[in-house]
Amino acid sequence: MKFILRYGFLAALGAILIAAAGCGTNAADNSSNQPVPDNAQIVNVESSNFKFVLDKTELQAGTPVVFEINDKEGNHSFSIASANISKNLSPGTQKVIWNQPKAGTYTIRCTVFCGSGHSNMVATFNVK
Ligand SMILES: [Cu+2]
Fold first, then answer.
1. Are 85 and 109 within 8 A, CB to CB?
2. All domains in the chain, ordered by first residue
3. Which of 5, 25, 80, 124 is the most exposed place for a label (fewest CB within 10 A)?
C-alpha cells in the first residue's frame, strides 16, 4: 500500500513537471514583467498576418531597448535569434525588454507557423 502511494505521488509529480515544462515559454522568453529601464529606447512594433512594422529601425548600442509589440491578428512569435530573444505573440500588446543591445544588424522573425505568409514575417533593424 505504501509502495502504491509513493509511486502514485511520483507519477503525479512527474505529470505536473511535464505539464509545467510543456506549457511554459522557452528560456529565451524575455518576460514583460521585468521593470522598464528609465533610459530605454522604445520601439513600437505592429505584427499582423504576415508582417512586422517597426516605428524605428536605427537603435543605439548599449542603451536598453523595449519593444512594445501590438499584435493585430494571429499567433506569431517575435524572435531575434542572434540576441537570444523569443516571445510568443497573441493578439494584444506585449513587451520585450532587451537590456544590452550590441552593435549589429538584427533580423526579427516569426518562428510560429502562422499561415501562408509565415516566411515573409521578417524585419531588420540596426544597432549602432
Ligand atoms: Cu509565422
1. no
2. 27-127 (2.60.40.420)
3. 5
